[in-house]
Design brief:
Distance between the termini: 46 Å
Number of strands: 14
Order of helices and strands: EHEEEHEHEHHEHEEHEHEHEHEHEHHH
CATH topology of the largest domain: Rossmann fold
Number of helices: 14
CATH class of the largest domain: Alpha Beta
Oligomer: single chain
Number of domains: 2
Strand order of the largest sheet: 3-4-2-1-5-6-7-8
Largest sheet: 8 strands, mixed
CATH superfamily of the largest domain: Glycogen Phosphorylase B
Shape: globular
């Protein structure tokens, strides 16, 4: 396998991953910390195991962080200075992308990667600005599409106004798009993307950690348990699961995610969920755990009779696959990636989004039939094997090698400064921030933002 990861120069292949807001080192559970952080971290580790040299470039959000730190064998994290060195909501990061791009350009001009792999639309924009003048092959993973978010959230969507247009531009500007689901592919083609430049590679799961035979968290006797693992944001549908509880006596709901438990009283969504549970008379059966350390998540999932993943929309749905890997059936909204990963009536049950009555009926049916739960759990575990990270990393690496081999840019030499991107370049959408006049001074004022 390692021989397949050598560059044309005979050294280990170098992949630069760009994830501007989702650091692989971040604590999970916050509003902007979730599946993308896990994806970037585990993909980088798996590529490292395959012999690839990986650098993950992410924005510095703490002044005490070192510029570079070792993350895993063959993997480093580069904390890029772009904007204030403190947490900033991801929807407010767009003005800092020119600075981010300038730092990427300098890093790649000094030590050239073979392929750049950007994650999320703002990372794609910064990576494009830096990679294009250096003639570096660029692969992009969206993780979520602004058009879908706008469709479901409408006026509540806080994304910058240029997001949808920028994402459409990226599909035509990068060398390859890695879609995580067929549903995402359909959405991208509907926006004008070329199907021949899209490869479908799913998100992955750590099969060594998420498995049926590990320890299970103790639980209260005499009650069935439903578990939700999610960021505390409205679109994740946690309120709909809570609203299903009055129809499910002797069932407890454990919700893991959000800020640390000690800070839940200060979290708007946590307070809203508690008010909802109180109003429905189920407060004593709803436990908000707050952030749960990543190593503790498998034991929590194994303690569940059923895992509920009932968002209003979902690009992929990593928690559902992790639950399946643990041998636990899933009640899932029939949306996005969940409609593909969870097989209806085989590894779980699909429900319409935003319908507590349907959620209650599906949960009630599975909770009442241990035999069906066991059969679905066994089928879920078998299906989850196709999402193992070694397999996903191998598929990702195959795309990287294909892009590298077919790109004339791969013959450029390091240290040769190409002409910088002009702010009026055709691939920059109207209203999007333009890069600075030179990568070495990427501090110009960006365009309008919501």
């Amino acid at each position: 396998m390692r021989s397949a990861t050598r560059s044309a120069a005979g050294r280990a292949m170098r992949i630069a991953m760009v994830s501007e807001h989702a650091s692989p080192l971040a604590t999970l559970g916050g509003v902007d910390s979730g599946g993308q952080n896990v994806h970037v971290a585990d993909l980088a580790r798996a590529l490292g195991r395959l012999g690839v040299t990986v650098v993950v470039h992410t924005r510095r959000d703490d002044p005490t962080l070192p510029r570079r730190t070792r993350f895993a064998p063959g993997v480093e994290v580069d904390h890029v200075d772009a904007g204030p060195p403190r947490p900033v909501p991801k929807d407010e990061l767009l003005p800092f992308m020119p600075d981010f791009a300038g730092e990427l350009f300098r890093a790649w001009d000094e030590r050239r990667p073979d392929v750049v792999h950007s994650h999320f639309w703002m990372s794609g924009l910064a990576a494009l600005w830096a990679a294009r003048p250096l003639e570096l092959p660029l692969v992009h993973t969206y993780h979520a599409l602004g058009l879908v978010k706008r469709r479901h959230q409408g006026c509540h969507d806080t994304s910058p106004v240029t997001r949808i247009e920028t994402e459409a531009m990226l599909a035509g500007a990068v060398d390859r798009v890695l879609a995580t689901t067929a549903d995402e592919t359909v959405e991208l083609v509907g926006q004008g993307a070329d199907l021949d430049r899209i490869s479908v590679v799913p998100c992955g799961v750590d099969l060594a950690r998420f498995r049926p035979d590990g320890p299970s968290e103790p639980r209260r006797p005499g009650r069935r348990r439903v578990v939700v693992v999610s960021r505390l944001v409205e679109r994740k549908g946690i309120g709909n699961v809570i609203a299903a509880l009055p129809s499910l006596p002797e069932v407890e709901l454990v919700v893991a995610g959000g800020p640390p438990a000690a800070l839940l009283d200060h979290d708007d969504e946590a307070r809203r969920f508690r008010r909802l549970a109180r109003s429905l008379g189920v407060e004593d059966r709803v436990e908000l755990r707050g952030a749960v350390p990543r190593p503790d998540v498998p034991a929590l999932l194994r303690s569940a009779d059923v895992v509920a993943c009932c968002p209003w929309y979902e690009p992929f749905g990593l928690v559902a696959v992790e639950a399946m890997a643990c041998g636990v059936p899933v009640v899932a909204s029939a949306v996005g990636g969940l409609a593909e990963s969870v097989l209806h009536e085989v590894t779980g049950v699909h429900v319409p989004p935003r319908q507590p009555e349907s959620i209650a009926a599906a949960l009630g049916r599975l909770l009442a039939d241990e035999g069906e739960r066991r059969a679905m759990g066994a089928a879920a575990h078998r299906r989850a094997q196709r999402f193992g990270w070694d397999r996903v990393a191998t598929q990702t690496l195959a795309v990287a090698r294909e892009v590298l081999a077919s790109s004339p840019r791969s013959t450029s030499t390091p240290g040769s400064r190409a002409a910088p991107i002009s702010p009026s370049a055709s691939f920059i959408p109207v209203g999007a921030p333009a890069p600075a006049s030179t990568p070495a001074s990427a501090s110009s004022t960006p365009g309008s933002q919501q």
